[in-house]
Amino acid sequence: MRRSLVYSRRLGYGVASVAMVTSLLAPAAAYAAPATPPAIPQVAADAAATAVPESTEVEKVRAVRAIEVGEATDEWLMLSDKNFVFRVYDKINPGKYPLTRAEAYRVYRIVVGTPDAPDATAFIRTGIHDFVDRDHIEYANRVEEARQAREARQKAAAFAEIPADAAMLDGNDQNFVYQVWRRSTGPKVKEGAMNAWGGDAVAWKTFITTTIYTLHLADQRDAIEKAKQESEEAARILAAKQAKKNAAAVLGIIAPEGWLTLSDDNFIRQLLTTAELADPRHVEVKNAADAALRSSNPADWKAFIDTGLKAADQRDAAREKAIREEADRQKVREIKAKAEAGRVRPRLVAEANAALAGTPADVTKFLSETQYAVLNQSLMTTTPGVTGWYVHTGGGDAWITPGTPGNAGETPLGDATWKVVTGLADANCYSFESTAHVGSYLRVQDYRVKLHASDGSAAFSTAATWCPKAGLSGTGVSLESKALPGRFLRHYGAQLWAGAKSGDTTGDLNPHVFEVDATWNIVDPNPNVTTPIMLRWHNDDALRAKIGNPKAAEVHENGVRLRDFERGRLYWTQGTQPRMLAGPIIATFDALGRFTINGTPARLEIDQTTAPDGVGQYVHYNPERMLSIYWSPTTGSHWVLGAIRDKWASLGWEKSALGYPTSDEYDIPGGRRSDFQNGYSISWNATTGETTVFRRVVVPIN
Questions:
Q1: What residues contact 532, with CB distance under 8 A and at least 6 apart?
Q2: CB-based contact 694:648 (threshold 8 Å)
Q3: HSE-up of 544 (CA within 13 Å, CB side)?
Q4: What pTM was computed for the model?
Q5: What CA–CA distance (Å, rounded) separates 88 from 127?
Q6: 24-68 pLDDT, tens per residue?
Q7: In contact, 72 and 64? CB cutoff 8 Å
Q8: Where is the signal peptide (predicted)?
Q9: What is the rounded CA–CA span in Å between residue 291 and residue 285?
Q10: CA contacts within 13 A on the Cβ side of 598
Q11: 242, 336, 348, 689: most buried by Cβ count inside 10 Å?
Q12: 417 and 504 in one domain?
């Protein structure tokens, strides 16, 4: 018979290795995690728990006041929540509240298609206020943008010597370009305006900020050339007047004819009397004008008019821009600081850091969009042995679960993503709204933590508010109940409780592990089911340090799960523990059929391990297969099996005279053979079952 007992020295080594890993996995006495994790909960969701009750009259009154459409008359208050949302869409000022209006329309469309959806009530209760706040920020930005656009039009019109009324300045860019065409007396400006008017928004903006200046200067040069036909002096006088016109136009002023005949110094003095230079926004221009007048050199006055005023205006614009950008960056810093202190919005912190490291456009986008799009998070356990479980519920009682893997690769866990919103009862705390059940929050009820729909009451708001603290176990975050101070969100037996170390309730049991059970990692939303591979990775610190982070998605092939990490791969199949392989041994393992060899189930006994000689690596299959894979840098990766493996083991494995295998086992007449490093082979006789060690002879070829 070909099979025999495996020699115990190496198996003893392997067992010792497993024992060592196990000791690393075992929690410290202070944590005393159970030897086996709790059963994965299979709890049906309580649909009634997430049925959101209709909004109250008080909530409707608050919503109407928020959108500034007058008082909440019976025309508002008698409406169903669905129709109330449509009335918001219909009556709200779209210019001031475009985001709120768009959200009202989106919500209305949802509840038309799904009448029992809670979205309309949730919008009235909380959503409308969130979007009104966003619109207020956006409105301030739009007002500033409109001011800048009006100022650009004012300067452009003044430069082209076109008196501009409010309709021309406050309309859109296309209308301004059209009015320039109608009112301009400069042929080149007129023609350029007509060409731009037929273009797009970029063409209109370019005409206002650039083209009109170039064309008007060309018209001025033509006029000077024409004046030269009269005399050089006439051309000089005209050029001087045009320089004064252009200087005043930088401030959006059309210089009266009387200003144009003043001496350069008196023209500058006239500018200093204007409201424009009394405005602190033009401080650089004012300072430059004062500096020019302090000089007695006419060349300095002329230089200010010709180029100095424009250069100073550009410095003013740059200073204003820098002030606005710094103000926006400061807002991002404040948002980031609050999120860091709160500990429950790490995605918001990361996006704030990215914005602060980016361009002004990145900052603007963060403030207007990104900060609202990254509030979803998931809550993962930190307790040794059950790390990788998530807070989960579809309604009613809340639990922790890793999920149940299916017959595919990575699959979403579901009902484990939470929108981290400002605390319903305390702006310094937070509430966790289910992203799958709008309007429903994690709340305390009789010490248990459940997912219930908000009824808008103060009692519910308090029960659904959690105040973050530094993790009680020294890492992560712990969440103290606003309703039950001194009690923290804690898992026990996979259930979620507002627990304490008092021992008063079920959720207080096992006080020796309370701190770690009440500590959470806030992780990315929409987690996948935590498969056996990832459960081991999360809970085996030594393994995690050895193989690094995942670098590819988990794969499920013919009942085998595998995942590549930075420095290795983990394999799992039903009835086995996840095992780690790395390097060339992976290819040999895969070629053998992984956990099924010639149709016979097999399992890995240990992770890939360094051989006693400190050079190679090896892994053992279960004793029934009598198979091992060995690798060294000089011999590569090869498998050895059965009696040949036993014989090699009896001689001392890789530390024997034979060294490492240099071939997989192969057929020979009457049996099988494996070759080894130092010129030796072991053969197996299929008839007698005997193994023979012999030294291969190299016969020279003449």
A1: 405, 561, 572, 577, 578
A2: no
A3: 13
A4: 0.85
A5: 12
A6: 223 333 333 444 788 888 888 999 999 999 999 999 999 999 999
A7: yes
A8: 1-32
A9: 10
A10: 2
A11: 348
A12: yes
In a domain, 394, yes or no: yes
Cα separation, 436 vs 395, whole angstroms: 10
Query: Token pair 């493996």 is at which residue?
Result: 645
- Say how many domains are in the chain: 5
Under a CB-based contact definition with an 8 Å cutoff, are residues 2 and 483 in contact? no
Say how many residues make up the chain: 702
Residues 588 and 686 in one domain: yes
Q: Is residue 541 part of a domain?
A: no
Neighbours of 464 (CB within 10 A): 28
Domain end among 87, 112, 141? 141
pLDDT of residue 702: 57
Cα distance between residue 7 and residue 644, in whole Å: 12
Tokens 């409707």 belong to residue: 60
**Percentage helix, strand, coil, to 5, in the chain?**
45, 20, 35
pLDDT band per the 50, 70, 90 thresholds, residue 268: very high
With CA atoms as reference, report the closest residue to 390 among 364, 370, 367, 416. Answer: 416
Confidence grade of residue 597 (pLDDT, cut at 50, 70, 90): confident
Using CB atoms within 10 Å of the CB of residue 507, give its burial: 0 to 12 exposed, 13 to 18 middle, 19+ buried.
Answer: buried
Region of 678 (left: φ > 0; alpha: ψ -120 to 50; beta: rest) is alpha
Instruction: Give me the mean pLDDT over the 440-454 stretch.
Output: 97
Residue 21 pLDDT class (50, 70, 90 cuts): very low
Residue 438 CB burial class (10 angstroms; 0-12, 13-18, ≥19):
buried
Residue-wise pLDDT tens digits, 471-496: 999 999 999 999 999 999 999 999 99
Q: Is residue 563 part of a domain?
A: no
Rounded distance between C-alpha atoms, residue 487 and residue 687, angstroms: 74
The reported pLDDT for the residue numbered 407 is: 85
Distance spanning both ends of the chain, measured CA to CA: 43
Joined tokens for residue 186: 């400069």
The two structure tokens encoding residue 468: 């973050």
Q: For the chain, how big is the Rg over CA atoms in Å?
A: 39
Give exposure, 385-397, as e/b (b: 16+ Cβ within 10 Å): bbbbbbbbbbbbb
Tens-digit pLDDT profile for residues 66-124:
999 999 999 999 999 999 999 999 999 999 999 999 999 999 999 999 998 999 999 99
Q: Are residues 98 and 15 in the same domain?
A: no
Q: Is the pLDDT of residue 503 over 90?
A: no
In a domain, 358, yes or no: no
The verdict on 324 and 390 lying in the same domain is: no
Average pLDDT of the residues of the chain? 92
- Supply 36's token pair: 């086996």
User: For residue 31, which phi and psi values (nearest 5 degrees)?
Assistant: -95, -40
Coil, helix or strand at residue 493: coil
> What would the two tokens of residue 139 be?
């409105």
pLDDT above 50 (res 2): no
Paired tokens of 51: 């049925």
Q: Of 109, 141, 173, which closes a domain?
A: 141
Mean pLDDT of 507-532: 96
Residues 406 and 509 in one domain: yes
Regarding beta strands 390-392 and 440-445, do their DSSP bridges make them parallel or antiparallel, or are they unpaired?
Answer: unpaired
What is the pLDDT at residue 699?
A: 57
Tokens 């029934």, residue located: 624
139: buried, middle or exposed (CB in 10 Å: 19+, 13-18, 0-12)? Answer: middle
Q: Tell me the pLDDT tens digit for each residue of 335-363.
A: 999 999 999 999 999 999 999 999 999 99
